[in-house]
Amino acid sequence: MSDVDDARPRAREDVILRSVAGDWVLYDPRTQDLHVLNVTAAAVWSCADGTRDVAAIAEALGEHLDGAPEPDEIRTDVERVLARFGDDGLLE
């Protein structure tokens, strides 16, 4: 298993998720940056609570998406979104 498989990503507690004019936005108070998210990325953020690994997050998303893509496709999207969050310093 890779580190990604074992990872239990945790969103930083000080980062704020809000719906603004129909979009989802993360506000990082450390950098004062805003990050605009699509619905899927917002759902990944909400699932990144430190208790679920990547597979569990992908499974949770798949259960709530209408016409969901294949599980491997969902997992790839989750990994991509989490990598972006990590690159942006939004995860603990």
Written overview of the protein:
With 92 residues, the protein is of the alpha+beta class. Helix content is 45%, strand content 17%. The protein is globular, with a radius of gyration of 13 Å.
Low-confidence stretches: none
Tell me the radius of gyration.
13 Å
In this structure, how is the largest beta sheet organized?
3 strands, antiparallel
Helix proportion of residues, in percent?
40-55%
Task: Please give the count of helices.
Answer: 4
**How many strand units?**
3
Judging from the principal axes of the Cα atoms, what is the shape?
A: globular
Protein structure class: alpha+beta
SSE pattern, N- to C-terminal: HEEEHHH
Give the strand content: 15-25%
Q: Report the top-level CATH class.
A: Alpha Beta
Mean pLDDT: 90
Taking the alpha carbons of the first and last residues, their distance comes to: 21 Å
CATH architecture: Alpha-Beta Complex
Strand order of the largest sheet: 1-2-3
- CATH topology type: Outer Surface Protein A, domain 3
Query: What is the subunit arrangement here?
Result: single chain
Number of separate structural domains: 1
Describe the secondary-structure layout.
Elements: H1 3-6, E1 16-20, E2 23-28, E3 33-37, H2 39-47, H3 54-64, H4 71-87
Antiparallel strand pairs: 1-2, 2-3
Helix pairs in contact: 2-3, 2-4, 3-4
Keywords:
single chain; globular; 3 strands; 92 residues; alpha+beta
Short recap of the structure:
This protein has 92 residues and is α+β, with helices and mostly antiparallel strands.
